[in-house]
Amino acid sequence: MSVSAQNVVQDTSVAETFAEKISAAQLQAKLQYQVKFKARDDNDFLLTADYRFLPNKASAKHMPGVIVLHDCHSERTKYKTLSTSIAQQGLHTLSLDFRGYGNSVGQGYSELTVKKNASDMMSYQTEVAVLMSYWSADLLAAYHFLRNKVDNSQGISIVASGCAGAYAVALAEEIHINSMVLLTPDMSYADKERYKNLVDIPSYFISSAQHAISYSTAQELFTWSGDKNSKLQVYKSDKLNYQILKANKYLVNDIALWLKFTLR
Hints:
The chain is α/β, with parallel strands linked by helices. The protein is built from ten helices and eight strands. The chain has helices spanning 3-31, 80-87, 111-117, 121-132, 135-149, 164-174, 189-196, 212-224, 242-247, 251-262, and strands at residues 33-38, 46-52, 65-69, 92-96, 156-161, 180-183, 203-208, 231-235.
């Protein structure tokens, strides 16, 4: 082979490698992009979320949607693997940072600032409770954002971790939710009673056997649920929230497939 021929082969190989890298980057860009939207029309505060979808699928615009909610001790990036797995099922997926957490922060709205300035645990809990008082409105805004992305003929479901389960229930009281996943639910007596008063919807309860409170809540609500597609998954561990996802590698895919099934 001549020197010039060798150069042609090498140049082609480099070009293909570069093209592959660009293609992979484009696919990732299509799968996820960060969005910001107002929590209320009369207020400039912006919520941040990751909106994941696959526009290269012909039916993408006609696919249902899922909102993913983090627990009270983390933020949306801890649930990236889960929300990506859901999006890979062809579902429009919105992973939200609640107000005061992750990138949904601003003047007067920051859990980290509250923690830094708190003089004791009671003052910290009081200020965090103020932040959380906005969360129902934040979730409603997230629902409307996703509703505008999803065809009106398609439904929307929710994945809620820990304390976020209470906000999922509150939304389901106001708006039809096709199904919900409650991951190691942290709910008060009143929250559980509100769930029981909902019209039966498919619910997937996930808990750790060695965490008595969430285990008891999951068992109680699963027993109460009258929907034939409701499901209970219990693991022999004490893991909570996103930690139970990390500890059980097949769980994220199981959740994604169950959501797709209940949204069919």
